[in-house]
């Protein structure tokens, strides 16, 4: 295991804190190490394409931090680079592997809720402006949608199991980034979804709600359920609150 950073002293401090035995002189030096099989690209979005592709060209599997890329064209180039060397490339949405999201997928797939007709995903967290804060720098991929709302989009796409079209969208902009984005999505399975994400709120809200023809599902804190979560299914007027087992992770199928 090895780590690298633009500032080698920061890399050394991180290595010491996390018992990492080697500190590489640069990102390229880390990628070139023969004893490194997988590279975690934990950079701001603007740095994802170059280092993901370099790692792929070196024959490494890549775990790329969310959001995956700055544009769809960048995302396609990254996927093609990984496919060319037949190595895995995964976007780092940790919650996709948590018991809560795996259970939500199972509930929807079981048909218990019936055909999905409506959904709403909210991720609002106060992130105050300050110079140097990456979420407030447009060139680095900042903004509420890129940092927070991507979780909403990912969850909705995962549970609908199809790709949406944007029916409408609006945002509030400050310092060049979206501070709040509201969107309406339409999925080919007939589900209409609302998305709300903001980093200028006074209090946090992280929630996911699905409504089907026969029942509904509501999850509080679907992004980090290990820190506290409520998972409730309502069918035929009866509500079932399921244990979330926030301390456990599940291996993907």
| Poorly predicted regions | 246-253
N to C succession of SSEs: EHEHEHEHEHEHEEEEEEE
Strand content: 25-35%
Mean pLDDT value: 93
Shape label = globular
Distance between the termini: 26 Å
| Count of separate DSSP helical elements | 6
Strand order of the largest sheet: 7-8-9-6-10-11-12-13
Helix share, percent: 25-40%
Question: What's the main sheet like?
Answer: 8 strands, mixed
Oligomer: single chain
Overview of the molecule:
This protein has 253 residues and is an alpha/beta fold. It contains 6 helices and 13 strands. α5 crosses α6. The C terminus is likely disordered.
How would you summarize this macromolecular structure in one to three sentences?
This protein has 253 residues and is α/β, with parallel strands linked by helices.
Keywords:
alpha/beta, single chain, disordered C terminus, 253 residues, globular
SSE diagram, text form:
Blueprint (H helix, E strand, L loop, with lengths): L1 E2 L4 H10 L4 E2 L3 H6 L5 E4 L6 H10 L3 E4 L7 H13 L4 E3 L7 H12 L5 E9 L19 H17 L4 E10 L2 E10 L5 E7 L6 E8 L2 E6 L9 E6 L2 E5 L11
Parallel strand pairs: 1-2, 3-4, 4-5, 6-9
Antiparallel strand pairs: 6-10, 7-8, 8-9, 10-11, 11-12, 12-13
Helix pairs in contact: 3-4, 5-6
């Amino acid at each position: 295991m090895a780590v690298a950073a633009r500032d080698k002293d920061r890399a050394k401090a991180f290595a010491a804190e996390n018992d990492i035995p080697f500190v590489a002189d640069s990102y390229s030096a880390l990628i070139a190490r023969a004893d490194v099989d997988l590279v975690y690209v934990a950079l701001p979005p603007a740095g994802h394409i170059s280092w993901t592709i370099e790692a792929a060209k070196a024959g490494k599997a890549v775990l790329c931090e969310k959001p995956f890329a700055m544009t769809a064209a960048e995302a396609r180039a990254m996927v093609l680079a990984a496919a060319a060397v037949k190595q895995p490339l995964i976007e780092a949405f940790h919650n996709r592997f948590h018991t809560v999201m795996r259970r939500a997928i199972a509930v929807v797939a079981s048909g218990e809720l019936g055909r999905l007709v409506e959904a709403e995903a909210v991720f609002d967290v106060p992130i105050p402006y300050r110079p140097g804060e990456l979420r407030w720098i447009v060139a680095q991929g900042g903004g509420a949608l890129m940092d927070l709302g991507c979780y909403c989009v990912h969850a909705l796409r995962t549970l609908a199991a199809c790709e949406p079209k944007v029916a409408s969208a609006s945002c509030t902009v400050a310092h060049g980034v979206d501070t709040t984005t509201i969107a309406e999505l339409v999925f080919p399975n007939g589900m209409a979804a609302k998305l709300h994400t903001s980093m200028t709120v006074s209090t946090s809200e992280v929630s996911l709600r699905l409504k089907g023809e026969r029942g509904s599902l509501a999850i509080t804190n679907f992004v980090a359920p290990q820190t506290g979560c409520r998972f409730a299914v309502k069918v035929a007027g009866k509500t079932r609150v399921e244990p979330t087992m926030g301390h456990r992770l599940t291996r993907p199928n």
